[in-house]
Amino acid sequence: MSKRDIIPSESLDDAVRVVIDVCSRARGGDLEARVTFIGESAQAAGLRAAVNGLLDQTDAFVREAGAASAAAAEGRFHRKFLDQGLNGVYRTAAQQITHSNQVMSRTAAEFAGAAQGRLRLADQLESAVLTVSEQVATAATEMGASANGLADFAREAVTDAERGLGTVSSLRSSSDEIRHAVDLINKVAAQTRLLALNATIEAARAGTAGRGFGVVANEVKSLANETSASSEEIMRQVATVQQAAADAIGVLEAVTARIREMSGLVDGIARAVDGGQDVTDGGLSQLAEVLQGEVSRFVTMIREA
């Protein structure tokens, strides 16, 4: 080793101070600090090259790491970590960062695909629910109108059946009155026949003078017999009418009871379709609106997620 290769003691102190200053600046974050001329010896040149080479490696790594991280944050995962000039752990770390960016790129692509799929699902769900809710609302309106009309018809049918029941009951009562009247007529006819018989006997006793009276008595007797026969026919017809009225009353009572049951069922259907008086007792239309609102809220949450 020649004397030119050895740093003089006074120059060594100056070189150490320069290196300490550069290292301190680098430690403080100033990676552009470099060791300048510290002597003409080979040791001074080697020290300068070693320190500046370390700083160059560190500066290049830090700059590339920052650029790669910034690009990844912006979604530009194709930006690779440029590892030219890096050695050892610097190159290994650079390759790991590049690999991490590639993994994040694939993950971001998967997330983007999942987000698009979620949005498509939200659109399909919203469209399907809107269609169903509209159909339910339309069906509910039609069913409500039909149910209300049927309920009105059932109520009118109950009223008509009750009116018919009242009419048949009145007919039965009238038949009873007719039967009572016919009984009176039969009694009168029986008395008339008895009187006619007595008159005929008295006319026969009177001889020629009572002959005309006897003819009248026979006519009265014949009329009484005809009246009695007619009364019996009327009684048979009245009995037939009363039996028919009794049967009709039984049928009408059964029909009225069934119609009342049907009216109650129809009213229940109408309430189910239109909703009751309580605001919480919603019908199909209100349920369709609630379903639409809840699904819209859910779809909005999916889209904003």
Automatic annotation (TrEMBL):
<dbReference type="InterPro" id="IPR004089">
    <property type="entry name" value="MCPsignal_dom"/>
</dbReference>
<protein>
    <submittedName>
        <fullName>Methyl-accepting chemotaxis protein (MCP) signaling protein</fullName>
    </submittedName>
</protein>
<dbReference type="GO" id="GO:0007165">
    <property type="term" value="P:signal transduction"/>
</dbReference>
<dbReference type="Pfam" id="PF00015">
    <property type="entry name" value="MCPsignal"/>
</dbReference>
<dbReference type="GO" id="GO:0016020">
    <property type="term" value="C:membrane"/>
</dbReference>
<feature type="domain" description="Methyl-accepting transducer">
    <location>
        <begin position="86"/>
        <end position="274"/>
    </location>
</feature>
<keyword id="KW-0807">Transducer</keyword>
